Amino acid sequence: MAKLGVAIIGLGMASLPHARALAALRDRIEVLHAFSPSPERRATFAQAHGFPIAETIETIWNDPRVAAVLILTPPNTHLDLVRSAAAAGKHILLEKPIEVSTPRAERLVALAEEAGIRVGIVLQNRFRPAASALRELMQEGRLGPLIHASARTSYWRPQSYYDEPGRGSLARDGGGVLLTQAIHNLDLMLSLTGAPETVTGFATTSPVHQMEGEDMAVASLRFTNGALGSISATTCAFPGQPDIIELIGERGRAVLDGTVLTARFHDGTSLDVAGEDAGSGAGADPMGFSSQAHQALILDFVEAITSGRQPAASGRDVLAVHALIDAILHSRGQAVRVRTGAPGGAPVADYFEPPQASG
After folding, report:
1. Which of 205, 221, 329, 331 has the fewest other C-beta atoms within 10 Å?
2. CA-CA distances (angstroms) from residue 322 to 174, 278, 312, 326?
């Protein structure tokens, strides 16, 4: 089987698990170029991983051997880089989030679709073994109709993390904990439950951090079938713990705690899955996790290109979590309807149903 030729753009912190994953997948993928505008980063990356270095980004766009590009740069650079990649006919694996705002994310996805290239988003939690087991469980209907869903992200980031120029800012990152950290857990929840119909949310910056974006957010959810839900996200929870998703159905309950799935059913059966993926990145070291989920995500992306299908976490699919985050941030305690393409959603004045008559 011929190897897929790829290039990497962006050699900062996010490149580490990708480089490890690409090294493990060398029988399927050939890294032809790695580029950063920083000569120091290029030198450091080459010494650490041994991949060929491109001195200019044009080398990547002009190389016909490069079928796909991994874009691992800050969010505010994504739209312009995808525009260049699309013009060069390169498929794209894009570090989350898609862009700094939902309108820019939508333009990026539309641009790629018009160019006929695949866009996959790096939301690797979907590919952990326990998450895959939970998805299969949901598809089989073993929990029964959903009645409650919750997602909790309780991370810790010291102030030094936010002292890096641009980190946690609206201009570079698009926001704080929701778009940078919790997006992984929220995307995974939506991939299991579908999008809620309405959201009531609150977001703030606590005294723990000095930053422009939010470091705490909570929200209540209501799904179209009447199921309820909740979201909490923070980077103030020292020393940090893995993401948690809890799904309650009419026939059972399932809890995904980091890489471990525990499910109990009313009929007395159970399911326990402990994935091999180690670490969570929930603490002071954001890269404190293995590259196994990245390997599965990149392999899915490669197979999507070679087979002509969409990646499992495609740009179009991931717009749903951007719309949800938008709704939480724009809610400010008022119920809003979640709509892709309508930043912040629309207020729902009659959201609450009247109480049922007693007796």
Report:
1. 205
2. 11, 27, 16, 6
DSSP 55-98: SSTHHHHH-TT--EEEE-S-GGGHHHHHHHHHHTT-EEEEESSS
- pLDDT for 319 equals 96
- Residue among 236, 226, 163, 173 at smallest CA distance from 203: 236
Looking at residue 134, its pLDDT comes to 98
Query: Which is nearest to 324 in space by CA: 131, 225, 109, 179?
Result: 179
| Buried/exposed code over 63-93 (b: 16+ C-beta within 10 A; e: otherwise) | beebbbbbbbbbbbebbebbebbbebebbbb
Give the pairing of strands 228-234 and 336-337: unpaired
**Contact in structure between 73 and 60 (CB atoms under 8 Å):** no
SS3 309: coil
Q: How far is CA 326 from the centre of its chain?
A: 14
Give dist(CA 273, CA 27) in Å, integer: 29
**For the chain, which ranges sit under pLDDT 70?**
277-278, 340-359
> Which pLDDT score, from 0 to 100, does residue 351 have?
36
Specify whether the CB–CB gap between 277 and 129 falls below 8 A: yes
pLDDT of residue 340: 59
C-alpha atoms less than 13 angstroms from C-alpha of 349 in its C-beta half-sphere: 0
CB atoms within 10 A of CB 274: 12
Q: With CA atoms as reference, report the closest residue to 255 among 185, 353, 199.
A: 185
Within its chain, how far is the Cα of 66 from the centroid?
25
Angle, in degrees to the nearest 10, between helices 315-331 and 183-193: 110
Tens digits of residue pLDDT in 267-284: 999 999 997 766 778 888
Distance of CA 279 to the CA centre of its chain: 17
- The strand order across the sheet containing 68-71 reads 29-35, 4-9, 68-71, 91-95, 119-122
Q: CA torsion, points 291, 292, 297, 302, in degrees to nearest 10?
A: 90
**Closest among 101, 345, 79 to 213, alpha carbons compared:** 101
